[in-house]
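Hi V.,

Quick status before I head out on leave. The structure for the redesign project is tokenized and pasted below; the design run finished overnight.
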């Protein structure tokens, strides 16, 4: 599919899906660069079309000009009016191909921010006026060939530049394309009979029940009400593995259903979907200004002024030493062209566009580019515990069975006894058994023992599940290994429940807020990156220190009230540590703001987190180390591009002015345009290499 068709498709989809914010972003970024006012109103297709037509017009200009025949030693075919081919075709190239640069220059001058478009317009304008004057009788050699070649090469360079930026931002259009074109809504009549109707996405509202067929895209955010399937969430969360979805699980618009059929209750459509939120955050990041961007913009501005001054000095200098006006003007045009801070202006925006979209593809949503920029300087990461390093839900975190009793079987039996109970500990046991793939049996004669536990009959056995109070009351015999296990769990501030039969404890289970399986790996990766890891929690010290030991955390702050979390962040900063705070973005909001970088974890379907500079789509701490890696890689590319762009101009401007003319090295305006374009392409290619970073 062509670029133009891709743009049209993305815009059509955005409109059809009612994603207002998505539509605005797509339109803006396909019309021009997020940070490049010089291309306001321009498009990739426009530069492409103008390049090809200008190229066609440039060929006869070269054939019937003076430069090419002199170089190749041939005489072009002569016929009445042939002497006007170069002036006419050169004028056509200037008026048609050069107009976008003139427009850009007018905007820059109107805004009192002369830049690269001003330099280009001045260069081609001087060449055009001088060529017209020579054609009408002014002494000298016209620059029609140079003018046509210069405009054509400039159009090619800008086409490549805009295409590179659009490709970098193309992930946003790809996100739009994830949405299906329609949905299958389930309608129930008064008798309970169902029928399925195919509707446009704009017709969906909260509370609708939709059928998601195998292999189809999910049309809206929602909750699974019937069915089981694996859903590919890679483009939204960066998770490479399909995620199993069961009744009660959340699903995200734009993700792709697997082999099963799902019935989903719609909870979010249009602008309120996670997809729309992700695109808003990516747009916000790409339009926000980093410190590096400010430096690049300032450098480009001063380079423009320096180029204008160098051009004026070049013209005056050559005329002063007796050079022909045509030669002096040719030097002026070359200086103006070769000094265009094109590469400098592209160095940062293109890297940012690539890094933010690369992050989005990996579940890292950058709200503020300064947050991403600061992440490379971090030397401490502070994690909230509950819901961040832990699941925020109770699970069985340890088990000990008596001799001759299988621990998994004991857990299965305990889950069967507890499945009709309402206590949080009971739910933790049932959930843990289910997550381990155990089949929870049905029991008979279930009975609660108020304040102590529950009991029920299972396969002819009377089984009891209860806590330490029940053990003490009934003087239950507890094997030594189970007693030691219970004492250690108590020291870790974990709840302990026993499976009891005939006055003897068969097994004991410790229940606590379960540590995420990914947390230990996240801590290990951060240590490998040279960062200190801190945990900040309001939980009891025994609980916090136990989690800290298990994960290898360097410093643990426990029993910290929400209003005191900011003080702990300040304390670390006063120690000279640049800190990131990782939390849920709600209770931890003040600490997220106070930290050098705020990272809101677990965005899920609610990506519009306002407190963090970076939002993690995946609900796990392993997404934090990639932020550091992306920040460091992004900064390296920015520095490389800025050094190249600045170094190129330092060398190129004196060369264009004719510093080496005494030894016969002279650049034509066309050669200057080639060098400037090559410099821009090098910057673009180097930025594209950022895609190879492994996150």
């Amino acid at each position: 599919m062509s670029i133009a068709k891709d743009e049209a498709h993305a815009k059509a989809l955005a409109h059809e899906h009612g994603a207002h914010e998505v539509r605005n972003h797509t339109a803006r970024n396909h019309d021009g660069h997020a940070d490049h006012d010089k291309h306001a109103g321009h498009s990739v297709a426009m530069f492409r079309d103008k390049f090809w037509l200008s190229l066609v017009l440039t060929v006869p200009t070269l054939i019937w000009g003076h430069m090419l025949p002199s170089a190749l030693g041939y005489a072009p075919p002569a016929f009445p009016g042939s002497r006007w081919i170069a002036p006419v075709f050169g004028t056509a190239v200037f008026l048609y191909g050069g107009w976008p640069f003139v427009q850009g220059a007018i905007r820059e001058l109107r805004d009192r921010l002369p830049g690269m478009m001003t330099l280009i317009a001045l260069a081609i304008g001087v060449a055009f006026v001088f060529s017209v004057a020579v054609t009408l009788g002014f002494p000298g050699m016209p620059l029609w060939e140079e003018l046509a070649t210069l405009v054509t090469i400039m159009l090619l360079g800008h086409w490549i530049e805009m295409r590179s930026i659009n490709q970098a931002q193309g992930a946003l259009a790809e996100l739009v394309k994830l949405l299906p074109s329609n949905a299958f809504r389930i309608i129930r009549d008064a008798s309970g009979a169902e029928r399925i109707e195919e509707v446009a996405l704009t017709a969906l509202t909260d509370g609708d029940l939709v059928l998601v067929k195998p292999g189809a895209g999910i049309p809206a955010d929602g909750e699974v009400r019937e069915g089981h399937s694996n859903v590919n969430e890679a483009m939204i969360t960066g998770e490479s593995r399909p995620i199993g979805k069961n009744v009660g699980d959340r699903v995200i618009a734009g993700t792709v259903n697997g082999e099963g059929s799902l019935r989903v209750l719609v909870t979010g459509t249009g602008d309120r979907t996670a997809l729309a939120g992700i695109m808003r955050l990516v747009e916000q990041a790409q339009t926000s200004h980093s410190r590096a961007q400010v430096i690049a913009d300032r450098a480009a501005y001063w380079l423009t002024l320096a180029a204008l001054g160098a051009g004026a000095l070049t013209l005056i200098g050559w005329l002063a030493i007796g050079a022909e006006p045509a030669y002096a003007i040719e030097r002026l045009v070359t200086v103006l062209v070769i000094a265009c801070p094109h590469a400098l202006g592209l160095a940062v925006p293109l890297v940012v566009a690539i890094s933010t979209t690369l992050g989005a593809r990996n579940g890292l949503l950058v709200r503020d580019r300064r947050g991403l920029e600061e992440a490379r300087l971090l030397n401490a990461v502070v994690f909230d515990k509950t819901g961040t390093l832990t699941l925020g839900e109770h699970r069985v975190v340890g088990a000990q069975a008596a001799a001759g009793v299988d621990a998994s079987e004991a857990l299965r039996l305990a889950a069967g006894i507890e499945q009709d109970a309402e206590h949080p500990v009971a739910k933790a046991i049932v959930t843990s058994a289910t997550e381990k793939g155990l089949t929870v049996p049905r029991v008979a004669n279930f009975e609660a023992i108020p304040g102590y536990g529950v009991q029920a009959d299972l396969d002819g056995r009377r089984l009891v599940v209860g806590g330490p109070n029940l053990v003490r009351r009934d003087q239950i015999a507890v094997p030594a290994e189970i007693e030691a296990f219970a004492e250690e769990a108590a020291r870790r501030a974990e709840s302990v429940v026993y499976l009891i039969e005939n006055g003897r404890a068969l097994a004991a289970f410790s229940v606590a807020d379960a540590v995420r399986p990914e947390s230990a790996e996240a801590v290990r990766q951060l240590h490998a990156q040279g960062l200190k890891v801190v945990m900040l929690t309001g939980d009891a010290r025994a609980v916090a220190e136990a989690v800290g030991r298990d994960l290898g955390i360097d410093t643990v702050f426990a029993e910290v009230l929400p209003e005191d979390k900011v003080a702990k962040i300040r304390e670390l900063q006063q120690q000279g540590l640049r800190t990131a705070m990782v939390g849920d973005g709600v209770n931890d909001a003040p600490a997220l703001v106070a930290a050098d970088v705020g990272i809101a974890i677990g965005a899920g379907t609610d990506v519009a987190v306002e407190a963090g500079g970076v939002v993690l789509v995946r609900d796990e701490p392993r997404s934090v180390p990639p932020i550091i890696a992306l920040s460091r890689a992004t900064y390296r590319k920015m520095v490389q591009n800025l050094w190249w762009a600045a170094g190129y101009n330092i060398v190129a401007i004196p060369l264009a002015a004719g510093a080496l003319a005494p030894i016969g090295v002279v650049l034509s305006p066309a050669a200057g345009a080639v060098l400037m374009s090559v410099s821009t392409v090098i910057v673009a290619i180097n930025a594209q290499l950022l895609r190879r970073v492994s996150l």
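Above is the designed sequence. Residues 1-37, 603-609 have pLDDT under 50 and may be disordered.

G. will cover questions while I'm gone.

Best,
W.
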